[in-house]
Request: fold
Amino acid sequence: MAYNIVDGYFVSEDLDPTYQSIRTKITTFTASATITVGQWVNLDYSKTSNADKLSYVTVTDTSGGAVAIGVPSIGVAVTAAAADEPVDVCVAGFCPAANVATGSTSGLALALDTTTSGRATIADAANVNLVGIALANAVDNSAPVIVLGYGS
Reply:
């Protein structure tokens, strides 16, 4: 899906016009490693300086169920990036295509998936870190979402 970000709004002929009025916060970070569009990301706390910890992001690592409680996500990558390249991240509001486990998700709270890094799934007892709300059912592991505001 092609879109432009103008004054914090998604503007696109591909999007339903009602989405274009929803305020969205986009922040540019630096990727610590390869990040693809739609992946949920978090600050890279492995960096040495506090400035770098607040400037670099990495795909939220939930491999092996490590997310149980405590792994935060700050938003969804809306551009792709290789290591040390800039990456735009939706940190609050509407995001047209987030990585969400395929299924009936419309209107449900989303949490980080405990089996696939960078993905959200329906919140439940095993997936408790709330990150967003799905606006439609997820198809091919993608859904439009409302990101629950980092820094808002």
